[in-house]
Amino acid sequence: MRRIPTLLFSLIVALYCLPTNSEVLSTPPIQLATQYQQDTVVAEYLVSEKLDGVRGYWDGSNMLTRSGRKVALPASFTLGFPHVAIDGELWLGRNRFEQISALVRRQQVPDQEWQEVRFMMFDLPQHPGPFSERYSAMKMMVEQTASTHLQVIKQETVASTEALFTILDGVVNAGGEGLMLHYQQAHYAVGRSEYIIKLKPKYDAEAVVIGHTQGKGKYRGKLGALVVKTPAGLVFNVGSGLSDKQRENPPLVGSIITYQYLGFTQKGTPRFASFLRERPSQ
What are phi and psi of 212, to 5 degrees? Predict the structure, then answer.
C-alpha cells in the first residue's frame, strides 16, 4: 500500500479538523437596503437606529454571517432561540464594532466573552406579513423567549423629514452610525429593496497629502492611496473615490484635499474615508 507523505497527510488532517467557525454553509437569502432619497415619505416607514455590529442570520439552528460562514457561538448563547429564520445584528454596543467583528471571526471563544453580546432582531424573512406585522411578531417572540441574548431593535414612526433628521442628529451625537427605515406595508424580499432604506451622515474634512502608495492588482503602476495628514496631526490613507485619471496623475505631495467619511473608528481615524476633490491652489 502506498504511503501518503507526512506533509500531505498533515494537511489532510488539518482540513478535516477545521473548527466549525470555518464551515461555510449556504449564503443566507437576505434583504439589502438602498440609500435614502429626498422624496421618501417618512410617515410610511418605521424607523430604527442602524447598529454598528455584524450582520447575523439565524436559520433556526445555526448563526450565519452574510457570506454564509457559521459563527462558533456557545450553546448557552442560543438556548431558547426559536426555530425560525431571523435576520439581525450581533451587537456589543455603540462604537464597539472592532470587538464584535473580532469575536465573530474567532474559532474558539470562552462562553463568558459572549455574555455582553446581543442578537438584535430586525426582521423575520419567512413571515408572510408586512413589516408592521413582522415587528409585532418579533416583540412577541422576545417576550416568549427566556434568552437575554435575543432582543428586537426598537422601531418608531416619524411624522416628517425634519423630525427624521432631528433623530439622526441625536443618534450620531450619541455615537450611533445612522438610521434604518422599513416601509410598513412591505413584505420581505431577498436582494436589494427600495422598501428598506439606510440613512447615514457624511462628513467633509480637509487634509494635506504627504505621500503616495503604489497600487496593486488592477491599479498596478498607478496610485494605490493618498497618504494624508490632518491639521490635528492624524495620518491615514485615502484610497477610494479616486478616478483612474486621478490615479495616473494624483494630487501632489503638499496639496490639500477634501475627503468624506462616516464617523470615526475606535482608533480615532476617519471611517470609510473617500476622496472628494482637490482644493485649488490659491
Answer: -130, 150
The x, y and z cell numbers of residue 98, run together, are: 472592532
Helices (H) and strands (E) in the chain, counts: 6, 15
Pairing of strands 86-91, 118-123: antiparallel
Q: What is the pLDDT of residue 8?
A: 41
Place of cell 468624506: 260
CA distances from 224 to 23, 215, 237, 254, 279 (A): 33, 4, 9, 17, 20
CA end-to-end span of the chain: 80
What is the C-alpha separation between 153 and 171, in angstroms, rounded? 14
β-pairing, 256-261 vs 235-238, is: unpaired
Which positions of the chain have pLDDT values less than 70? 1-24, 281-282
Answer for the pair 279, 256: CB distance below 8 angstroms, yes or no.
Answer: yes
List, by residue number, the catalytic residues.
Answer: 50
pTM: 0.71
